[in-house]
Amino acid sequence: MTILLDGLRVLSHAATLVDGVDLELTPGTSTALVGASGAGKSLTCAALAGLLPPNLQVSGSLTVTDGQDDGAAPAGPNLLPIPAAQRPRGARIALVPQDPTPALHPLIPVGRQIEMACAADQGSRKGGDAEPLLARVGLEGLGDRVPARLSGGQRQRACLALALAGSPALLIADEPTTALDVIARAEILDLLASLTRAESAPALLLITHDLPAAATCQSMAVMAGGRIIEQGPTERLLTRPAHPATAAMRRAAADETLSSALAAVGAHQAACGACQSHHAEQPGAAA
Ligand SMILES: Nc1ncnc2c1ncn2[C@@H]1O[C@H](COP(=O)(O)OP(=O)(O)OP(=O)(O)O)[C@@H](O)[C@H]1O
């Protein structure tokens, strides 16, 4: 199976917001979509997921080709003009939002919400079984809790389970770790990586500003000004970026780490200096 986005353009009146984006995604692989604020990442993903606001015009094609990757299988219909809810089963593209709270019903236990999503996917009135999905995202035994009784990381896991209930060909995670502490962040990145290794795994597209998070993906696409300026294996882009904007992002990420470490060392030395002179002034302090 291959998910092929070809020549995506998104326009708002005369303004071109996304300008000729091509992506090829295969189930079981992970791709990070990175770029500065306003580069066009969210609009690209909204177009992929069939969730663009109605004030925007879209052109290009998005096809999900089923079967073997030998080019023999016919491509499906162009999904770009088809809204998310009307896309055919097996060609669905799920978007996990940055903030899980508004995406979950506040009064319904998350297990029930997942059952309803499974039932909707199967077109049945009976609830589906939430347990396998709860287990897949590490929420075993927590299905009877309403979202307010879950941590931020657990709510993000519940959103992932809801997205997986539709058996998507592609799972898009939009900055899924922004609101999380470092431990929950690492756990969600680990979970996303494990989802792509599972049997009948979807393709994963991770939108992020966070280059260390992008490094957990096999490949990376860098956006600027509505275009993809560079894409390829993550290891190559992070070690030998070809485009100056990718190199600048890499330097900024490295400087950020270095400057915060230096600031922390400086603060520590200042505190130690103050502490030592305080002790030296005390009667009986060792010289
Ligand atoms: N509904 C809309 N109508 C008109 N312009 C829009 C709309 N949504 C986004 N834009 C514009 O399109 C451009 C790309 O926006 P987009 O949200 O895709 O950027 P982004 O790369 O996801 O940024 P960020 O990382 O800050 O979320 C921006 O200039 C933005 O102002």
What does this structure look like?
With 287 residues, this protein is of the alpha/beta class. It folds into two domains: 1-92 and 170-256, Rossmann fold (3-Layer(aba) Sandwich); 99-167, no CATH class. Helix content is 37%, strand content 22%. It is built from eight helices and nine strands. It has helices at 41-49, 110-122, 131-136, 152-165, 182-197, 211-214, 234-239, 244-281; strands at residues 2-12, 15-25, 30-35, 57-65, 93-96, 170-174, 203-207, 219-224, 227-233. The strands form two sheets. Strands 5-6-7-3-8-9 form a six-stranded mixed beta sheet, with helices on both faces. It has a three-stranded antiparallel beta sheet with strand order 2-1-4, with helices on one face. Helix 2 runs parallel beside helix 4 and helix 4 runs parallel beside helix 5. The N and C termini lie far apart (74 Å). Bound molecules: adenosine-5'-triphosphate. Residues 12, 17, 35, 37-43, 53, 55-56 line the site of adenosine-5'-triphosphate. Adenosine-5'-triphosphate (ATP) binds at residues 12, 17, 35, 37-43, 53, 55-56. Keywords: ATP-binding, Cell inner membrane, Cell membrane, Hydrolase, Membrane, Nucleotide-binding, Translocase, Transport. It is a peripheral membrane protein.
Descriptive terms for the model:
alpha/beta; 2 domains; binds adenosine-5'-triphosphate; Rossmann fold; three-stranded antiparallel sheet; 287 residues; single chain; 37% helix
- Measured by DSSP, the beta-strand proportion falls in 15-25%
CATH level 4 superfamily of the largest domain: P-loop containing nucleotide triphosphate hydrolases
Instruction: Please give the share of residues in helix.
Output: 25-40%
Topology, number of strands: 9
CATH topology of the largest domain: Rossmann fold
Bound molecules: adenosine-5'-triphosphate
Query: Under the CATH scheme, which class of the largest domain?
Result: Alpha Beta
- What is the H/E string? EEEHEEHHHEHEHEEHH
Uncertain runs are none
Q: Quickly give the CATH architecture of the largest domain.
A: 3-Layer(aba) Sandwich
> How far apart are the first and last residues' alpha carbons, in Å?
74 Å
Overall body shape: globular
Q: How many separate helices?
A: 8
Strand order of the largest sheet: 5-6-7-3-8-9
What quaternary form is this? single chain
Domain module count = 2
* Main sheet specs: 6 strands, mixed
